[in-house]
Write a structure and sequence with these properties.
By secondary structure, the chain is an alpha+beta fold. The chain is built from 3 helices and 11 strands, in the order ααβββββββββαββ. A hairpin with a 2-residue loop joins strand 4 and strand 5. It binds 2-acetamido-2-deoxy-beta-D-glucopyranose (2 copies). This is Lipocalin 9.
Length: about 180
């Protein structure tokens, strides 16, 4: 009985691992179909030019669990964040701009939110430029359709971060442990 369960779990794990193929021909960089962006996403990794904003108690350290493209063209992000040790839930609506895949929102300052690339199926990469007290902060975020993405997606994210001047020390991994989101700095 226990063996059967183990085999079942192993099979499931293998299936998830092998199913996660990064097909670069399926990656979209512009002209996004926002209906396909909608749905469940998990925060996988984040990078920032100011680490205290995505570190413990950082105001931009958020754990996304859903993105919804609204009828009026706005984009709604639902996420969890930690506030004084408690897990809080929040949804914010980003307003569309004249450009496809680009949004703005007032949240801890003024923000421009851009999709950098996605394959809709496994991953999406966002770029956020935050302006607060005349200080600019760059943030990049990698979200996955499942709580864990294979290293190939993380490597790709690392390379994108590099283009924005963010090295390995600017990147954190947000991992999914026992049904709760936790982060390793
Ligand atoms: C980084 O963020 C922290 C926390 O919001 C802030 O106090 C600090 O001034 C920021 N540093 C820079 C260089 O922007
Ligand atoms: C679009 O709809 C959402 C949800 O009803 C609302 O919060 C947002 O302000 C709307 N945006 C515009 C530009 O009307």
């Amino acid at each position: 009985m226990r063996m059967a369960l183990l085999l079942l779990l192993l099979g499931l794990g293998l299936r998830l691992a092998t199913a996660q193929q990064l097909d670069i021909h399926k990656i979209v960089y512009w002209n996004y179909d926002m209906a396909k962006v909608s749905g469940v996403w998990y925060s996988i990794s984040m990078a920032s030019s100011n680490m205290s904003r995505i570190g413990k108690n950082g105001d931009l350290r958020v754990f996304v669990y859903n993105i919804e493209s609204l009828k009026n063209g706005s984009l709604k992000f639902s996420f969890h964040f930690m506030l004084q040790g408690l897990c809080e839930q929040l949804a914010v609506v980003c307003e569309k701009t004249g450009r496809n895949g680009e949004y703005t929102i007032d949240y801890e300052g003024e923000n421009a939110v851009l999709i950098l690339e996605t394959d809709y199926k496994f991953f999406i990469t966002f770029y956020l430029r935050n302006l607060r007290d005349r200080t600019q902060t760059h943030v990049l975020a990698l979200y996955g359709r499942i709580p864990q993405l294979s290293p190939i997606f993380l490597d790709r994210f690392r390379k994108i971060c590099q283009k924005y001047g963010l090295g390995p020390n600017n990147i954190i991994k947000l991992s999914y442990i026992g049904g709760r989101r936790q982060a390793q700095a």
